[in-house]
Write a sequence for this structure.
């Protein structure tokens, strides 16, 4: 596909996504204001939607404003406001999840008394939070995948010319990357997955939740070599593995699936 064609498709997708985000945020604001007193069982839900709608719109407007500014004090100040607003929004979103899910499922029938919440606002809040959580989850996977692709571009592979990138996600949410590093004495070559995990351990991480790996093969999803599977299992069997193609598409699998019946540290204690 031509680069210009690809970028115009990307711009159209961004415009459509922007319109959807604006519509959802305006609806949150409107529904929250309209039904402020219609959820006696959990009165925070309308307030939650009202506040998240308003603060998200304010943060979006500030981002547009930053784009019109050159570097300077004002730009720095506005960026700090955006970061603070987004941090607040994250905490507010998580609090909203507690309010919304704590009363699921409930009755939409006003005649049943205290179990009542207005149907539209409750369902809106429920789907807003559920889809929001999925998007946030997905955003982390996308970041992991994009970091492993960046790492592949730094591979040192003058002999095989087969660049590989890996990015490992720690339990604390940090992403550590690695690439293959070859050597004129071929046997000393280290794979990308092992570079990543060794860097992560050296930086003090011991628990991992996922790893993304990629190479230059376009037509199939390629997994880590056997040696790397063994090194990964040293730190637990519950690792999610994203096998990534150069175009950014990925297949989700797990270390358990890639290395069945493994030899692990647990066996040494028996
Ligand atoms: Zn390997």
């Amino acid at each position: 596909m031509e680069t210009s064609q690809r970028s115009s498709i990307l711009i159209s997708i961004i415009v459509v996504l922007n319109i959807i985000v604006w519509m959802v945020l305006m609806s949150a604001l409107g529904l929250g204001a309209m039904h402020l007193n219609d959820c006696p069982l959990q009165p925070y839900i309308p307030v939650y939607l009202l506040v998240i709608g308003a603060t998200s719109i304010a943060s979006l407007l500030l981002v547009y404003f930053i784009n019109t500014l050159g570097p300077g004090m004002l730009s720095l100040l506005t960026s700090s406001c955006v970061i603070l607003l987004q941090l607040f929004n994250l905490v507010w979103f998580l609090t909203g999840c507690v309010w919304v899910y704590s009363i699921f499922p409930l009755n939409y029938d006003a005649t049943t008394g205290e179990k009542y919440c207005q149907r539209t606002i409750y369902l809106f809040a429920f789907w807003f939070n559920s889809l929001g959580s999925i998007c946030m989850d997905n955003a982390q996977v996308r970041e992991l995948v994009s970091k492993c692709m960046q790492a592949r571009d730094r591979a040192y592979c003058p002999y095989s010319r087969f660049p590989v990138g890996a990015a490992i996600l720690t339990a604390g949410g940090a992403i550590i990357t690695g690439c293959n590093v070859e050597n004129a004495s071929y046997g000393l070559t280290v794979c990308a997955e092992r570079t990543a995990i060794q860097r992560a351990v050296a930086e003090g991480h011991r628990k991992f939740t996922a790893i993304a790996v990629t190479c230059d093969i376009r037509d199939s999803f390629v997994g880590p070599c056997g040696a790397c599977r063994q090194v990964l299992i040293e730190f637990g069997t519950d690792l999610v593995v994203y096998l990534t193609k150069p175009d950014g598409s990925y297949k989700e699998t797990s270390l358990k699936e890639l290395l069945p019946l493994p030899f692990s540290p647990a066996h040494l204690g028996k």
